[in-house]
Design goal:
The complex is a heterodimer. Chain A is an alpha+beta fold. Chain A contains ten helices and nine strands. Chain B folds into two domains: about 150 residues, D-Maltodextrin-Binding Protein, domain 2 (3-Layer(aba) Sandwich); about 100 residues, Periplasmic binding protein-like II (D-Maltodextrin-Binding Protein, domain 2, 3-Layer(aba) Sandwich), CATH 3.40.190. Classes of the chains: A alpha+beta, B alpha/beta.
Chain lengths: ~475, ~280
C-alpha cells in the first residue's frame, strides 16, 4: 500500500479493486480446482473399486487354484474388450505375493514378487490422482469367499483426467484474467467518474495560489450528495477567507490612518512649540524695529524656527511620497524617522538611544518605503509601550549577510496577541491593531524574519533583512 | 483283396443304409475339444453343416475344455464320435476305433514343435532348463507327450526340469502364452502353429521354433469300438471320408487348412506309442 501512495487516488482505488479481484479470482479458482480434484479422486476411487471387485469375482477361484493360464486369459480378454483404456496394466499375485499373471507378462514375469512393481502404489481408501504423471498405481488384496487369496496391482491411465484438470485450470485462468481485466477497467472508469469532483476540488485548490478560488455553480455535482455538500462547504470557506482578507485590508488602512493621526498630533505639537517663540520674535521685531541688533537677533530666531518647521514638513512629505517613488534606502531616511519620532519622545520625556552603524552600500539594496514603514511602526509602538520617562532605542547595523534593525523599549512587553501578530503566520486576531502584522508581512515580503527578545525589562524586536551578494548589484 | 469297385459299391450300400439308420437317430453327437478349434466358431459351423448335409440329420458338436473330458464323453456314450488326439486314442486303444484321419500337406502326419519367444536364445530343449513352459493338455501328444518323453530320454521330469509349467488347454493358447511372454517356451501342435502362421501371423511372429519332433500320426476321429458297426457311426465315417466332395465339407477343410480325410490304421500311431512307453518306463 505504501508503494501506491505516490499514485493519484483515481488510480490507486481502481488498482486496489483490481488487486482484490485478482485475489478473489485466485481463491475462487483454487476452490474450483480443489472441487474438481476431489470429484476426480472420488471418480477414480469408485472406478478402481469396481475394477478390483470385478477382477476379484472373475479371478478369485482361478487364483485360489493358482491357474496361471486362466488368470492370464481372463486378464487378456478383459483388456481386449475394454474400449476406454483406463486400465493399462494389471498384475495378479498369489497369497505369497508371487505374480501369477499380468496383462504385460514381460513387465511382470511369472513368479516374480509383486512388491517390485508396487513401489509408489496407493491403497483404495486413499487413492488420489497426483498432479504429475499419467498413471496411478493401486495395490489391493484379492478376496474370494471372504478370504484373502492373493493381491491385485492395477495401473490406471489418468492422463485424460489430468488433461481435464489442466484444461479447467487454463480456462479458469483465461476466464478470470478476462473478467478481472474487464471489471478492472469498469472499476477504473467508474472510480474515475466518482472521484472526478475530488479531482476538480484538488485542481481548484492547487491552482488558487495565495487565495483559494470558489468552484463555479456550473461545476457543482447535481443533487444533494456528499460531494455537493463538500463543494458548498468549500465555496463557503473560500468566501470566509475572502471576507477575512478584506477585513484585514480595511484594518490595515485604519492602522495607517491611526499612525497618521498620531503622527499629525506630534507634528502639531512640534509646530505649536516653536510657533510661540516665532510669534514672540515677530512681536519683538515690531516693538524694537528701530534697534537693528534686536531685529537681527529676532530674525535669526525666526529663521531657525522656520528652518525646523521646513525640515518637519519635508520629512512628513517624504514619508508619504516614498511609497510611490521607489527610492532606495539612505542614512538620511533614519534621520527623517528620528525627526518624526522626536516630538513623541520629547512629549513623553523619554531617552532615545539612536545608533545607525551601517554603510550606504548595504542600505541601498532595499527600498526606502517598506523599511521606513517597518521602523516607524516599531518606534511608534516602542514609544507607546515605554510610557512616560521610558527608554527607546534604535540600532541599525550590518550583520552576517543581513541588515539588522533592533528596536528596543522599556515597556511591559508584548501581549500574547501582539506576539501572534508579529511572529505568527496564522490569521491575526480581530483584537488590537494591525501595525505589528504589517511589520511581519512587510518583513516577509523582503525575505527577512522577525525576532523578539525580552531581557532585563527591555523588549527588543529584531528585524533581519538578507543582503544580496556584492556582484548582484543594487535593487532593480 | 477288395477291389475299388466293390469297395465303392459297399460304401454306397453302407451310405444308403447309414443314411436310413441315421434318419432313425434324432441327432448325431460329435465331440470336439478347443485344443484345435479354439474360438473358431466359423469352423464349428462349417463342420456342423457339412456333416448334417451328408447324414441328413442334425449334428451336434459337443465341445469340452480337455481331451480327458471329450474322451470321457465318448467312452460313456454321451457322444457318438470324437476328434481326439493320437495320445488319448492310444490310452484307450482297446475301447476305441479309428474312423478317419485328416490329411495335411498330403500326409496324415504332423509334428510337435518346441517353441520359445522370438528373442529367446535357446536352440535346444536342454537350453530351456529352469524356465517356464506351457503345455496345451496333459493328454495331448504334441502338446505334452513329445516334450515329456524327450525329457524322459534326458532323465528329466517336466516339473523339475522347468521352474514352472502351465497347461493352457489349447495349442493356440500355447502360442499366445509364449508370444506374450507369459512363459518362455511351449509345446505346440506343429500343424496348428503353421496354420496360425497363415491365418494369424501376429500371434506366431513373436515365437520361434526351437525344435521339431519326428512325423507322428495326425489326431484322428474315433468312435467307441463296440459301436463301430452302428449304421450312424458307419455313415459318419463315410461322411468324413467324403468330406472333401461337398461344398460345405470342402469349405470346412479349407478353413482347417486340411487336404481331406483318410482311412487310417492303428499303426499310424506307432511313433506315439513308442513315446508313451518311454515315458511310462521312465516314470
Amino acid at each position: 500500500m505504501r508503494g501506491l501512495q505516490p499514485l493519484p487516488l483515481s488510480l490507486r482505488v481502481p488498482l486496489l479493486t483490481v488487486a482484490l479481484m485478482v485475489l478473489v479470482g485466485i481463491i475462487a479458482s483454487q476452490q474450483v480446482l480443489t472441487t474438481l480434484r476431489n470429484v476426480q479422486n472420488e471418480r477414480i476411487r469408485e472406478l478402481a473399486q469396481l475394477q478390483i471387485e470385478a477382477l476379484s469375482v472373475a479371478l478369485g477361484p482361478l487364483v485360489l487354484r493358482k491357474n496361471v493360464w486362466e488368470v492370464y486369459d481372463t486378464l487378456d480378454r478383459a483388456t481386449g474388450e475394454t474400449h476406454v483404456q483406463r486400465l493399462v496394466f494389471t498384475a495378479v499375485a498369489d497369497e505369497n505375493g508371487n505374480i501369477l499373471a499380468a496383462t504385460d507378462p514381460k513387465r511382470a514375469p511369472l513368479d516374480s514378487p509383486i512388491k517390485a512393481l508396487a513401489q509408489d502404489a496407493q491403497n483404495l481408501e486413499t487413492l488420489s490422482i497426483p498432479d504429475q504423471g499419467t498413471d496411478i498405481r493401486l495395490l489391493s488384496d484379492l478376496t474370494y469367499q471372504d478370504r484373502m487369496v492373493g493381491q491385485i496391482l492395477i495401473e490406471l491411465d489418468v492422463s485424460d483426467l489430468l488433461a481435464e484438470r489442466s484444461k479447467a485450470a487454463r480456462l479458469l485462468l483465461i476466464g478470470n484474467a478476462v473478467a478481472t481485466g474487464f471489471l478492472a477497467l469498469l472499476g477504473y472508469f467508474g472510480m474515475r467518474r466518482m472521484l472526478r469532483p475530488i479531482t476538480l476540488l484538488v485542481s481548484h485548490m492547487r491552482n488558487s495560489g495565495e487565495r483559494p478560488e470558489p468552484i463555479p455553480q456550473t461545476d457543482l455535482p447535481r443533487g444533494d450528495t456528499e460531494m455537493t455538500r463538500l463543494f458548498h462547504s468549500y465555496n463557503g470557506m473560500v468566501g470566509s477567507i475572502e471576507a477575512k482578507a478584506e477585513a484585514d485590508k480595511r484594518l490595515a488602512n485604519r492602522e495607517r490612518f491611526v499612525s497618521l493621526g498620531r503622527l499629525s498630533a506630534s507634528l502639531a505639537h512640534e509646530i505649536n512649540n516653536p510657533l510661540g517663540g516665532l510669534l514672540n520674535a515677530a512681536d519683538t521685531i515690531k516693538t524694537y524695529a528701530d534697534r537693528p541688533e534686536v531685529v537681527r537677533e529676532s530674525a535669526e530666531l525666526l529663521t531657525r524656527g522656520l528652518g525646523h518647521l521646513r525640515d518637519v514638513a519635508r520629512a512628513t512629505l517624504d514619508q508619504n511620497r516614498l511609497d510611490r517613488s521607489g527610492a532606495v534606502l539612505v542614512p538620511e531616511d533614519f534621520d527623517d524617522l528620528r525627526l518624526l519620532i522626536r516630538p513623541e519622545v520629547s512629549r513623553k520625556s523619554q531617552d532615545l538611544d539612536w545608533r545607525i552603524e551601517v554603510d550606504q552600500k548595504d542600505l541601498s539594496q532595499f527600498a526606502a518605503a517598506p523599511v521606513r514603514q517597518i521602523v516607524l511602526n516599531l518606534l511608534l509602538n516602542a514609544t507607546e509601550a515605554s510610557g512616560q520617562g521610558g527608554k527607546v532605542g534604535l540600532q541599525v547595523y550590518t550583520g552576517d549577510n543581513s541588515l539588522c534593525i533592533n528596536v528596543s523599549d522599556t515597556g511591559p512587553g508584548l501581549s500574547k496577541a501582539a506576539c501572534a501578530r508579529l511572529l505568527g503566520n496564522g490569521p491575526a486576531s480581530s483584537e488590537g491593531g494591525v501595525g505589528l502584522r504589517l511589520v511581519h508581512d512587510m518583513t516577509r515580503e523582503l525575505q527577512g524574519f522577525v525576532r523578539l527578545n525580552r531581557a532585563d525589562g527591555v523588549t527588543t524586536i529584531s528585524i533581519e533583512l538578507p543582503l544580496k551578494p556584492d556582484n548582484q548589484g543594487d535593487l532593480c | 483283396m477288395i477291389s475299388r469297385r466293390s469297395m465303392l459299391a459297399g460304401a454306397a450300400a453302407i451310405a444308403g443304409f447309414s443314411a436310413k439308420s441315421a434318419r432313425a437317430m434324432d441327432v448325431f453327437r460329435l465331440g470336439l475339444t478347443p485344443v484345435f478349434l479354439d474360438n473358431d466358431a466359423e469352423v464349428v459351423d462349417r463342420l456342423r453343416g457339412a456333416f448334417a448335409d451328408t447324414l441328413g440329420i442334425p449334428v451336434e458338436l459337443e465341445q469340452r475344455r480337455t481331451y480327458e473330458e471329450v474322451t470321457g464323453l465318448l467312452l460313456e456314450g454321451s457322444v457318438d464320435a470324437a476328434w481326439l488326439c493320437g495320445y488319448p486314442y492310444l490310452q484307450h486303444r482297446k475301447s476305441l476305433e479309428l474312423m478317419a484321419v485328416p490329411v495335411w500337406n498330403g500326409r496324415p502326419l504332423y509334428q510337435s514343435y518346441l517353441i520359445a519367444g522370438s528373442d529367446n536364445t535357446a536352440t535346444t530343449l536342454a537350453d530351456l532348463r529352469g524356465g517356464t513352459h506351457a503345455f496345451s493338455d496333459p493328454d495331448s501328444n504334441s502338446g505334452y507327450l513329445v516334450t515329456a518323453s524327450d525329457l524322459a530320454r534326458m532323465q528329466e521330469r517336466p516339473d523339475s526340469f522347468f521352474k514352472r509349467t502351465i497347461f493352457t488347454f489349447g495349442h493356440r493358447n500355447v502360442v499366445r502364452a509364449v508370444g506374450d511372454g507369459l512363459v518362455q517356451s511351449g509345446s505346440v501342435d506343429g500343424y496348428v502353429w503353421e496354420a496360425l502362421t497363415k491365418t494369424e501371423p501376429d500371434l506366431t511372429k513373436h515365437t520361434k521354433v526351437i525344435s521339431k519332433s519326428e512325423w507322428l500320426g495326425f489326431p484322428p476321429f474315433c468312435t467307441r469300438a463296440d459301436r463301430a458297426g452302428e449304421p450312424a457311426i458307419r455313415a459318419m465315417r463315410l461322411a468324413l471320408l467324403d468330406m472333401g466332395k461337398t461344398a460345405q465339407g470342402k469349405a470346412a477343410l479349407d478353413l482347417l487348412q486340411l487336404d481331406r480325410m483318410a482311412a487310417a490304421q492303428p499303426s499310424l500311431y506307432d511313433g506315439i506309442a513308442t513315446r508313451m512307453r518311454e515315458l511310462e518306463n521312465f516314470l
